[in-house]
Design brief:
This protein is mostly helical. It folds into two domains: 3-82, no CATH class; 111-180. The chain has ten helices and no strands. The radius of gyration is 21 Å and the shape is flat.
């Protein structure tokens, strides 16, 4: 049982509340921790035990109503945390690109390992997609294959976001504008 499992359940009734569980909430810090404890107290659960929270939440027929009321009561703080989470994600992309620029400035060359790793992830994703479409999964290997596929989907998504994300588009637009001057 993980915090992400609770996030999925909670997000169905109260998406802003669901966003404080899991890695995003951990990255945001103490503000999310206090809200998590608040959610746990709605159900009389231990705030440090995701299994207890989920069990008591699922056993409460009024859980969705309680979560919606909690979200409405704490909407302003939850929205602040959502903005903070978006800022952290944006800063992560900025840091990755700054790392690449720093390597080019220091060595005079691009980090080709980054490009090879990205190509490997994209090729692996394509290969698994092709195999899953045209080949039956061997008996007893379903979970392993789907686990690998899930990992490649996550990696593929990260590669696409890094190379073609919104800040990449903004950088390309800035470069084009500089050329036109």
């Amino acid at each position: 049982m993980a915090w992400e499992d609770i996030a999925k359940v909670v997000a169905k009734a109260a998406p802003l509340v669901g966003s404080i569980f899991g890695p995003a909430g951990t990255a945001i810090g103490a503000g999310a921790g206090g809200l998590i404890a608040g959610v746990a107290s709605l159900f009389g659960a231990d705030p440090d035990d995701p299994e207890d929270i989920l069990m008591k939440m699922q056993g409460d027929p009024e859980a969705q109503l309680k979560l919606v009321e909690f979200q409405n009561r704490h909407r302003e703080r939850l929205e602040e945390l959502a903005i903070e989470k978006d800022k952290l994600n944006m800063q992560d992309r900025i840091d990755a690109r700054a790392r690449e620029r720093g390597i080019v400035q220091a060595t005079g060359k691009k980090d080709y390992f980054l490009y090879m790793l990205a190509a490997l992830v994209v090729a692996g994703f394509g290969a698994i997609c092709f195999i899953l479409v045209y080949e039956p999964i061997p008996e007893g290997a379903n979970q392993v294959v789907l686990l690998l596929f899930g990992g490649l989907v996550a990696g593929f998504t990260q590669v696409m976001n890094y190379f073609f994300g919104s800040s990449k588009g903004s950088a390309d637009k800035t470069a084009l504008m500089a050329v036109k001057k």
